[in-house]
Amino acid sequence: MIFSQVELAPADPILGLTEAFKADVRKEKVNLGVGIYKDESGQTPILKSVKFAEEKLLATEKSKSYLGMEGVEAYNRAVQSLLFGSEHSVVTQKRALTAQAPGGTGSLRVAAEFLVRHTDSKKIWISNPTWANHNNIFSTAGLEIAEYTYYKAETHGLDFEAMVSDLETAKEGDLVLLHGCCHNPTGIDLNNVQWQQIADLCLAKGLVPLFDFAYQGFGAGVEEDAQGLRIFANTVPELIVANSFSKNFGLYNERIGAVTVVGATSNETVNAFSQIKSTIRASYSNPPAHGALIVSTILEDATLKQLWHDELKEMRERIAEMRTLFVESLKQAGVTQNFDFISNQNGMFSFSGLSKEQVNRLRDDFAVYIVGSGRISVAGMTKTNMPVICAAIAKVL
Ligand code: LMR
Asked: Which of 356, 251, 340, 333 is nearest to 295 (CA)?
């Protein structure tokens, strides 16, 4: 008998909330935990560009044979264009190679396994706070975790000075996890001058950046949101990107992302990439095709690509509208505390500053679910649920 020794796993801080939410029988419940986009009617829509691409695929797809370990070639090319722009030197010098992988989590895990097994990098610096799953992914893969300061509670802003001084203590070969845009959970991003400073620091100290890029297009726009990554690609010789299309194509359950390795030379990139492929082979052999074919079909067709850009803009603008409405509605609900800082945050989330106790009260007394860190998914707010949410927050403050 072996299972009698197994202890019950703690609930996942984000996905566990969805489980609890589903089991909640109260009628007026609101889930602002997991980062999923909802439209004004509270639905998570399938984008029109995705539906058109699927129709095209249904009519033209000829085989369900295995993909290569690295996935769909056209998709991997398209990923590089979105990340770096097609004319970037890392692309033209063949210093970047991309493998399709299952979502952001799968991409991070492949990257971490590769790093642990095939490089001397054994420690990764992650921001404090960060996405609740980062620690889990990296420690499970065998990386040692260190934290750099990112957020200053008193100002509800970035603590750039502390970030720099923490990273100054990192050692050559250490990895640094950076959120490409729309930092999860704070919604606070570096400006271009700060990106350059961190890139210079990484170059000077021989630190290797790993970008988690899951929200491209949810900040200022597809190109604008890639500026930090491109500054790094212009500055440091080596980096890795784990990106996801769960949010910006609404392809959550297709599990579609990619891991891109950039090496100092094309030869070194080829070697590193061969080990990325062997990591994939040992893990899930080769990826499923559907999500990648949707993305590449859209990005290779000028009309569908434009439609996708328009749909992404609509999602971005609706979230921005909810952000403003949230701040106003809190005031209307009688909250005197200043929440204006929420208007300056980027992406799907608002880092509210609510305490663990207040978060628990929101759930227990008002059926409003947010993450324990005080992270609220603004992308799940609508004009309809806003008054309920704000009335509940006003009561727990
Ligand atoms: C989130 O942060 O809510 C999303 O990235 C979903 C997840 O897997 O946690």
From this structure: 251
